[in-house]
Amino acid sequence: MRVLLFLLWTFLAFSGEIRVFAAADLQHPLSEIVRLYERRHPQDKVVLTFGSSGKGATQIRQGAPFDIYMAANMKFVEDLYKEGYVVTPPKPYAVGKLVIWVRKDSGLDPSKFPQVLLDDRVKKIAIADWKVAPYGAAAKELLERTGLWDRVKEKLVIGENISQTASFVFSGAADVGLISLSQALSKELSAKGIYWVVPKDKYTPIVQGYGITKRGSEKPEVRRFYEFILSKEAREVFKKYGFDEPY
């Protein structure tokens, strides 16, 4: 009986809910990673919230109840760490890639960059808000480096985050989208569109980082999931969605 009680107390002590704010480009890979984790740790429940990295940082500063913060770049995590909202030293977990995506029925060829953005058929170009979304910042940098910014800025449709940006071009509200490779490789977008991976030397590397917040620092279940993010199983999922390893 004592053994059973001990096991029950141990289960209760190490079980719980893990609340994660994650960058919008992680919607598909992180959902898969959570399923793998919960099969291994059925006593834990991971609750995911997706949005722009900047919005997540603001919410954490305002007291939002997140245990882990996963941004699409290192800077947002580093800033929260300096301010005391993230308590673990920022760690990179993946390196993202920017792509140009178009619908298959558009007749456009995304590999014909930069001409594809200047095509007369292209009336709207979707990018994420560069002030809060790292992929939006990368897209803006690409357009500026290639001398296209002033030529296409009137065509831009700005998404709140990279998921909304993808939805604009997926739905036809925009003709071309500058989105993450992880989204382009999702079942929905890969079935309906084609993409071209932007060369890495055209924008600053999108090194994505994460950390445990002050709220989650005392929870063993949070530490378990935090460590699982860098496991071999998780790395395989990130690789499946086009991410490079940060090391």
UniProtKB/TrEMBL annotation:
NCBIfam families per record: modA
- Gene3D superfamilies (UniProt xref): Periplasmic binding protein-like II
What is any one GO biological process for this UniProt entry?
molybdate ion transport
User: What SUPFAM superfamilies does the database record attribute to this sequence?
Assistant: Periplasmic binding protein-like II (SSF53850)
InterPro entries named in the record: AvModA-like_subst-bd, ModA, ModA/WtpA
**Quaternary state and partners of this protein?**
The complex is composed of two ATP-binding proteins (ModC), two transmembrane proteins (ModB) and a solute-binding protein (ModA).
Q: What is this protein called?
A: Molybdenum ABC transporter, periplasmic molybdate-binding protein
PANTHER family to which the protein is assigned, alphabetical: MOLYBDATE-BINDING PERIPLASMIC PROTEIN (PTHR30632), TUNGSTATE_MOLYBDATE_CHROMATE-BINDING PROTEIN MODA (PTHR30632:SF14)
Q: Which family does it belong to?
A: Belongs to the bacterial solute-binding protein ModA family.
Q: Does the keyword Calcium apply?
A: no
